[in-house]
Amino acid sequence: KRSFPSGWTSNSSSAWGIRIQCAGGGGGGIEPKIGANGRPEIGRSFDLTLTAAASRVDAALLVGLSDRQWGSVPLPFDLGLFGAPGCSILVAGDIYLPLRVSSSGSATFRIPVPNTKSIVGKSFFTQFMILDRKANQLGIVTTQGGRGKIGMPL
User: pTM for the full model?
Assistant: First the structure.
């Protein structure tokens, strides 16, 4: 078993992992964080977590297959151009999963991984976007990006 910086872990027979990549942003000094509990293994579920966000607001989890391009838009896409300095879209929003942030500024989204061997080794990218009208002119803040790799159960 080998460990790598930023939370990656790998096992020679079962490559899987989640790592946080790139800095997200938060206008107004708010810096929400993305995290993970569990491992993205086929036939199992793992949680993506949001912490340090504004309380009782709407948010979305973006899940995509790229961190370089979203349709014709190159990534990262700087939201500072629209009034959210320090915030960028880091992942393609192929899947948009809405959620509500709790009164403590946190949220958890459980991700079921299909029990399909053909997806082992495939990567996916994640990021939370949070509506926070007080944070900046656009009213949106973002987390860092996450990168996951599907593996076999240990």
Answer: 0.82
